[in-house]
Write a sequence for this structure.
């Protein structure tokens, strides 16, 4: 009798393309933060596969996992500061996979960001674990992110080029804006995502932060808006989370509303709220509202006469 059980990892072309698009930002995180980033990325990816496998085995009575679990793990790891303890990453992975991805046939929020939001809310002290970038993290020291500097005035605001190239503190996979943009463009060219939501999200954040820049000098306003767009989770959330075709509205007007709404929430939290970023809140709130937005913007069926 054959008692062999085959472990299978299911995937499709879009999931594989997403994984490919995520690689440059992850490699940048490892380059800038070294072993800390590598351990976080490996922990989240492996934990997400394991949790999904255990759910499938003991609850669904099937074997294997999906490549989507790896993508979820990477998005979670990329959203965490490089000094986040491994046990926090494991808790975030459990929340993302078991409580969000597996328990709901169609998750109402992005699982990875839900896990990150729980870790941030439950263990807020970890937010101080940001590091300055250095080659393999050998000379990294604790330092505030550009958004923290702009919010609390705790240092000198970095140059736009430094933010673009990753020469500032940030989350593991969100520190190098240029490589996030390259990964996002790959997804757009491969038609994995639509360009509408990222453009509306990023554009809304840029317009609002430009209008409410503290210094009304035009150059300073442009720098303030540019730093808000390139720092934190705006680019990453716009290209890898909010634009996910499984969760975003199906109509063009719905996509526009979704992107603009997320941008308004994010910019308002950054400018007037308690937190320096706000992109996680903006994306998760928009995830929750997307089914309503989709329903309201779908064309009415023609009446049969």
């Amino acid at each position: 009798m054959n008692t062999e059980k085959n472990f299978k990892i299911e995937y499709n072309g879009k999931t594989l393309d997403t994984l490919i698009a995520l690689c440059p930002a992850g490699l940048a995180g490892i380059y800038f933060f070294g072993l800390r980033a590598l351990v976080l990325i490996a922990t989240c990816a492996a934990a997400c596969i394991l949790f999904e496998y255990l759910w499938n085995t003991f609850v669904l009575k099937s074997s294997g996992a999906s490549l989507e679990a790896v993508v979820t793990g990477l998005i979670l790891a990329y959203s965490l500061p490089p000094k986040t303890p491994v046990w926090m990453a494991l808790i975030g992975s459990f929340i993302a996979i078991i409580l969000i991805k597996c328990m709901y046939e169609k998750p109402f929020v992005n699982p990875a960001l839900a896990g990150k939001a729980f870790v941030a809310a439950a263990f807020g002290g970890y937010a101080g674990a940001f590091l300055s970038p250095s080659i393999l993290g050998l000379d990294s020291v604790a330092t505030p992110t550009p958004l923290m500097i702009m919010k609390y005035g705790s240092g000198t605001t970095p140059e736009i080029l430094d933010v673009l190239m990753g020469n500032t503190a940030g989350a593991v996979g969100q520190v190098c804006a240029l490589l996030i943009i390259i990964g996002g463009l790959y997804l757009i060219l491969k038609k994995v995502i639509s360009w509408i939501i990222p453009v509306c999200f990023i554009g809304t954040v840029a317009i609002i932060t430009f209008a409410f820049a503290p210094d009304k000098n035009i150059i300073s306003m442009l720098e303030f808006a540019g730093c808000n767009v390139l720092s934190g989770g705006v680019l990453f959330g716009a290209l890898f989370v909010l634009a996910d075709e499984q969760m975003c509205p199906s109509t063009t007007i719905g996509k526009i509303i979704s992107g603009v709404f997320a941008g308004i929430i994010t910019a308002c939290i950054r400018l007037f709220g308690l937190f320096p970023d706000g992109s996680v809140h903006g994306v998760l709130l928009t995830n929750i509202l997307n089914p309503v937005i989709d329903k309201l913007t779908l064309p009415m069926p023609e009446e049969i006469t």
